[in-house]
């Protein structure tokens, strides 16, 4: 099969097109013929080596963290899927590799594809929708009537998180550029703040939850919009000790991550709010619940561009510009 991979960590380096055997199938695996895969900023960060301490991959490494396709074969222990099923998934972090013609994944990480989406649309969903779910439902326990600020509302996570928060009954504010105000409002944002014109921390007050996906300044300034007892949850760091422990990191790395997040945790505590870092995990059960919301019309994908498989490097370059509205997808099969 053909795939796009990296041989070494290199900032801005091009992925190499390679040809090698299909992945081996474990007892609980499904082998999926990839029809589409989406491109995430995470792929660029992995290529750049930003996660090599907490995600110790063996090189060469096929990139890609989202997939939609058709089950080709199943392992002897698989009970939920059979050949011919149309599925989608975010593979487990130690088994990524969707920039390829085939990928093997544990059936626990896989869900049936929403029947009202194309393969390309479905491939845009898993990583960002699971991220939004794990922040808003699991970590924040967002309730009807609460107020949530979602940064970067026109991005991959933001477009889904706005819709999920509205489904949960929350009041939603978001930050975005002038050109994307209409988009985020169409997704359900009650308050859309143009970051080129206004400072969000001067406009918003008494929020219950903030979902941060941006840099240090935005993270720190987000504390000002939270009420006492509020939750600041970041998917862009800094990582904390709780994440390190859950990730199985050794004692030394746990201390390093504790120190990395010490400043923001102290500032949060001073304001009577909490800070936590979330690195989403694969979960086919949660993805099945998201499928139900998609089929019911509560969540829709936002796809900016679709690239052919052979232009995977161009797709990754486009994602790195930060200008994509929603997701960027590569069409494989």
Describe the structure.
This protein is α/β, with parallel strands linked by helices and 333 residues long. It has 2 domains: 155 residues, Medium-chain alcohol dehydrogenases, catalytic domain (Quinone Oxidoreductase, Chain A, domain 1, Alpha-Beta Complex), CATH 3.90.180.10; 151 residues, NAD(P)-binding Rossmann-like Domain (Rossmann fold), CATH 3.40.50.720. 31% of the residues lie in helices and 26% in strands. Strands 3, 5, 6, 7, 8, 15 and 16 form a 7-stranded mixed beta sheet that branches. The protein has a 6-stranded parallel beta sheet with strand order 11-10-9-12-13-14, with helices on both faces. Strands 2-1-4 form a 3-stranded antiparallel beta sheet, with no helix packed on it. Helix 12 links the parallel strand 15 and strand 16. Helix 3 packs across helix 4. The longest helix is centred in the middle third of the chain and has 14 residues. The termini are close together.
Distinctive features:
single chain; 333 residues; alpha/beta; Quinone Oxidoreductase, Chain A, domain 1; Rossmann fold; 2 domains; seven-stranded mixed β-sheet; six-stranded parallel β-sheet; 12 helices; 16 strands; 26% strand; globular; oxidoreductase; GroES-like_sf; Quin_OxRdtase/zeta-crystal_CS; zinc ion binding
